[in-house]
Write a structure and sequence with these properties.
The structure is a homodimer of 239-residue chains. The first copy, chain A, is mostly helical and 239 residues long. Chain A has two domains: 11-76, Winged helix-like DNA-binding domain superfamily/Winged helix DNA-binding domain (Arc Repressor Mutant, subunit A); 81-237, Four Helix Bundle (Hemerythrin (Met), subunit A). In chain A, 70% of the residues lie in helices and 3% in strands. Chain A is built from eleven helices and two strands, in the order αααββαααααααα. Chain A has helices at residues 11-25, 37-44, 48-60, 81-98, 103-124, 127-141, 147-163, 168-180, 182-185, 192-210, 214-237; strands at 64-67, 73-76. A two-stranded antiparallel ribbon of chain A has the order 1-2. In chain A, a hairpin with a 5-residue loop joins β1 and β2 (73-76). In chain A, α1 crosses α3, α2 (37-44) crosses α3 and α6 (127-141) runs antiparallel to α7 (147-163). The first copy, chain A, is elongated and about 65 Å long. Chain A starts with 10 loop residues before the first helix and ends with a helix. The relative contact order of chain A is 0.11. The interface between A and B is large, with 56 and 56 residues. Chain A binds a DNA duplex (30 and 30 nucleotides) through α3.
Chain lengths: 239, 239
DNA sequence: CACTCCTTAATTGTCTGACAATTGCTTGCC
DNA sequence: GGCAAGCAATTGTCAGACAATTAAGGAGTG
């Protein structure tokens, strides 16, 4: 690990990067204990606060976890899919909201990615996935559902579709795209007619997935994408 | 912003989360200055080191930047696509390496996502994108190229393909998938025959993109995916 | 007035020392 | 052996000090 630091730069940042690189390079392996704060102070010749700030930076990225007490310390964290989801969603959400990405662009990205999953999902989905999709469709048909709850169910439905592909890497990549769109989707108000139309499309989609008909699922998804963009545009313009 | 903290928990973590939520909720907008460290100490009734550790956590996620001096302080950062790329790549790389995701799964995810871009790229790519792809193909044909340089060029080629779709959200999502695979790809040794084959596929791909033939590009990508998986399997098994 | 230089105040970056809280280990007692 | 007390190591928090950086204002000078 690099221990020589450039003065007149942010020391804690440099230390964090040195340790992060060591983790990425594999010099520090999962569950391995890092040197104690005191040892790191010596190693980098800095004060304890500086070391601590560096460690907090790494903790914020889920790269390490810390434990108090004897035989405690900082340990390299196994990056779990769960944590990675969370990070990705936060980042994607902020990216979309802060850069005023328009609805159309985000929608296009989302459905393009989702369509990539459809054929795989049609081939590999388990009965569980289909059941989840059916359950969400049922929820979406309930009268008196708030727009937000409708959106949340929509996310859950599509999540099941994506998970059906049985590829955790795909699921991870798509979690960000789908969930990050939720704030944008929440700005839309759905009339009963809109919901009926969406539920109908979802039903056909679930049928296609259950029937292992990937190309039909793809087709329906493109319909859904088109309809959603249309909906977004009309709703945005009436404001 | 929430200022009441649960004692006997990690204070700096709670503070960081409170501020992060305020940013996500839009209570703190881009380029807005946060209260100074001293003010935050008062607001949360904690010591300065605790506040500083919280701020470093946020800085590690690129949520804020800090400036020294009078009229300095911590400011809400605009999450740029550039920074988001970097974060995503780090996360994806670690996720893949730490969870021993097998080559096949990662490859499938990567090419599934890339195929989602192909039709869009065929429609929208600029001459610049095509030129980049051609340039990378040329580089890949050079004799004496190391395997690593070959892989890097491969990434650049596919990056141009994805960027050609002209959708920054898509580019962002895919940056992680493509670049995170590089360490896995780097484990492969490419014979001259392998390279020739890949260069041929790349050339046909560039032709299809240039000729705005999305479905042909899609087809070639599936060929490339199949060949890559095959290559990976044979190379892994001979170890 | 315009320009330069100096001082001042505000703010973050770093260091030191102290104490609290937690936790595993050892030691002594029954 | 089993149990409780204490000990040592480690992170979490705090307070105070000083350094480094930067913007703003003021003094002096042409």
């Amino acid at each position: 690990m690099k221990t020589d630091l450039d003065d007149n730069q942010d020391l804690s940042k440099q230390i964090a990067e040195a340790i992060r690189d060591a983790i990425i390079e594999g010099d520090l392996i999962v569950d391995q204990r890092l040197p104690s704060e005191a040892e790191l102070c010596d190693k980098f010749s800095v004060g304890r606060s500086t070391v601590r700030e560096a460690l907090k930076r790494l903790a914020a990225q889920n790269l390490i976890r810390t434990q108090r007490g004897a035989s405690g310390g900082a340990f390299v964290n196994r990056m779990s899919f769960e944590e990675a989801y969370g990070q990705q969603i936060t980042t994607s959400t902020l990216l979309l909201s802060m850069n005023s990405v328009d609805f159309e662009t985000a929608c296009e990205a989302r459905y393009a990615l989702e369509r990539a999953c459809a054929p795989l999902s049609a081939r590999r989905r388990t009965p569980d996935h289909v059941a989840t999709m059916r359950a969400e469709i049922h929820r979406q048909s309930q009268p008196g559902l708030t727009d937000e709850a409708f959106c949340a169910s929509d996310v859950a439905f599509h999540r099941a579709l994506v998970d059906g592909a049985g590829n955790p890497v795909l699921s991870y990549q798509l979690a960000g795209a789908v969930e990050a769109m939720q704030p944008l989707m929440n700005m839309i108000t759905y009339t009963q007619r809109d919901r009926d139309r969406i539920v109908a499309l979802h039903t056909r989609l679930a049928d296609a997935i259950e029937g292992a008909d990937g190309s039909r699922a793809d087709l329906i998804l493109s319909e859904l994408a088109e309809y959603t963009v249309e909906l977004g545009q009309s709703r945005m313009s009436t404001r």
